[in-house]
Design goal:
Number of strands: 10
Number of helices: 10
Helix content: 25-40%
Structural class: alpha+beta
Distance between the termini: 29 Å
Strand order of the largest sheet: 1-6-7-5
Order of helices and strands: HEHEEEEEEEHHHHHHHHEE
Shape: globular
CATH architecture of the largest domain: Orthogonal Bundle
Largest sheet: 4 strands, antiparallel
């Protein structure tokens, strides 16, 4: 599933390709949404935003398209007279005279008044989105201090979108590693210094992932490994998907466990109990 940084990049691409341009096509696969094709086609996209893994497309008529990719949704981009070669099912198409933005395989698509977006069930329960809010480290630190779920294990809490919206499975492992915190720790267990490290790690890795397209390893180390012949998958992360391999920082063997039904990776040397 795409995480917050991936959706943030998609939103920027969508805005660049279709915002403030005449629309030649607004097409929905779902019958209950087809009534919106004509009125939205006569409008223009005003802006595209994200909150966590949700993406919203705002129109000048006052409506917004809400989408959530869930596990299988994927955005693709093409020239308007072409469609990507894929077996996926097209669910939403937005085209201008020069570009098309195409959403495949997603099932969570709605058209709602822009004024009611904040009342949408997912949006209403979403926590701090470091990217869309542009919160600084101080603000993230304050959020961690004030969050009501202080006694929940961070290995569970980091997948809760009411905590840090947009954090998913790979970011969970990477944030905890960079902060030097084991997944069984709770917010209430962290002193001010460790909580600050958690805030800094979350902020740094969210924005790094936006910049690099999902690479969380620091740029210098990633470049060195790439030049040494490592594949992108091999040099992409510090610990995620690296079970049994040596930690980049201390050479300990990376461990894999399962938390909340999903795989989580940690370095026992850098994240001691």
């Amino acid at each position: 599933m795409p995480e917050g940084p991936e959706m943030y990049r998609v939103a920027r691409k969508l805005h660049a390709d279709i915002a403030d341009k005449p629309l030649t096509e607004v097409w929905f696969a779902f019958n209950h949404l087809k009534k919106w094709q004509a009125p939205l086609s006569d409008s223009q996209v005003e802006r595209v935003t994200t909150l966590g893994k949700a993406l919203m497309i705002y129109f000048r008529t006052g409506e917004a398209i809400y989408t959530h990719n869930q596990l299988y949704g994927r955005w693709r981009f093409s020239e308007p007279d072409r469609r990507p070669d894929t077996r996926r099912s097209l669910r939403l198409a937005l085209s201008t005279p020069t570009r098309s933005a195409l959403l495949y395989s997603a099932s969570d698509i709605e058209v709602i008044p822009a004024s009611e977006i904040q009342s949408h069930p997912f949006i209403a329960r979403a926590g701090l989105d470091i990217l869309s809010s542009e919160a600084g480290v101080d603000e993230v630190d304050a959020w961690l201090d004030e969050f009501p779920g202080q006694r929940r294990r961070l290995g569970l809490l980091l997948l809760d979108q009411s905590f840090l919206a947009g954090v998913g499975n790979y970011l969970r492992s990477e944030i905890l590693f960079l902060a030097g915190i084991p997944p069984d720790s709770r917010l209430v267990d962290l002193d001010a210094g460790r909580r600050r490290r958690l805030a800094e790690a979350a902020h740094r890795l969210m924005w790094r992932s936006v910049k690099t397209g999902g690479i969380t390893l620091d740029a210098e180390r990633a470049l060195a490994l790439k030049r040494a012949g490592w594949t992108r998958r091999e040099y992409r992360h510090y610990v995620f998907d690296r079970e049994g391999q040596a930690c980049h920082l201390c050479d300990s063997a990376i461990e894999r466990t399962t938390v909340s039904g999903r795989r989580l990776y940690r370095c026992p040397g850098c994240q001691p109990d």
